[in-house]
Amino acid sequence: MPLIELTAPEGSLTESGRATIQKTLVATLMRWEGAPDNAFFRSISWSYLHEVPADAQTTAEDGEPRFLVKVTVPAGAVSDKQKEGLVADATKDVLAAAGLGEDQALRVWVLITEQADGTWGGGGQIFRYADLVALANG
């Protein structure tokens, strides 16, 4: 049940970046989570792009665009090492989509939330992490 959401100010992504960022972020998340790249796991790996008005986000320092990536995964699905890789790669993905260099990395924040087992449902039923592992292992 990986879920990844990007909040970005309108106009802060390049045209091609806006067109591709959601699938790019989902692929990054699935890779770090270790999910199989098959139709079922792609169908339950969701991505949202939330564009806010350009002036809706600021810092105390300046009004340059900032980007917030929220990731939700089942509890226990990613190790600390996987989280580190996910944060690094999601940051690179967003910077590329915005046409920014790696020197702008602090403009991207990534928050990872682990969903407690038994608190995620889809299709009218609860899915547990063990269920997803069993599906992944065939």
Class inferred from helices and paired strands? alpha/beta
Q: Detail the poorly predicted runs.
A: none
> Span between N and C termini?
17 Å
Spatial order of the strands forming the largest sheet = 2-1-3-4
Specify the helix fraction band: 25-40%
Question: Can you give me a brief rundown of this structure?
Answer:
This protein is of the alpha/beta class and 138 residues long.
Provide a descriptive summary of the structure in words.
- With 138 residues, this protein is an alpha/beta fold.
- It has four helices and six strands; from the N terminus they run βααββαβββα.
- A four-stranded mixed sheet has the order 2-1-3-4, covered by helices on one side.
- Helix 3 links the parallel strand 3 (67-74) and strand 4.
List the topology elements:
Blueprint: E1 3-9, H1 15-33, H2 39-43, E2 46-52, E3 67-74, H3 80-98, E4 108-115, E5 120-122, E6 125-127, H4 129-136
Parallel strand pairs: 1-2, 3-4
Antiparallel strand pairs: 1-3, 5-6
Helix pairs in contact: 1-3
